Amino acid sequence: VQRSLVLVKPDGVRRGLSGEILRRIEAKGYTLTAVELRTATTEILAEHYAEHEGKPFYGPLVEFMLSGPVLAVVIEGQRCIEGFRSLAGATDPTLAAPGTIRGDLGRDWGLAVQQNLVHGSDSEESAAREIGIWFPGL
Ligand code: GTP
Ligand code: MG
Hints:
Elements: E1 2-8, H1 10-14, H2 18-27, E2 31-38, H3 42-48, H4 58-65, E3 70-77, H5 80-88, H6 101-105, E4 118-120, H7 124-134
């Protein structure tokens, strides 16, 4: 059975959508293995977003992720990595399909970084790496 790291990003927590997002995960049949409201640090984000370092949206992305608490979640279930990416929808909330978290609830605020409510690991390797960053010991 797979595990994936999900984050409700600061825009989702701020807008009071944490419960709605967890509801969709549970309704899909995935198990919540860990749920913790956390404040990110530059160190954690540098590891978490290492693949994006140097890209034009990297600075604004880190700043945004530090702008308020995030809900760090580990989910578990058959093919939950792909499954959660599918629930989340496309990165750009304007293009994300209706029925998805980003498509139904995400907005384009016209800012330097896409504020798109959630993060989900994109592979088994990323999931293991990211769970190690946010929940060492899990
Ligand atoms: P995550 O689940 O958050 O990793 O989203 P993703 O896998 O759909 O996107 P990706 O890993 O490529 O990028 C990480 C985050 O950086 C995105 O969720 C956005 O917040 C932001 N981002 C990515 N690409 C762009 C872009 O082209 N422009 C802007 N403004 N922000 C971006
Ligand atoms: Mg990603």
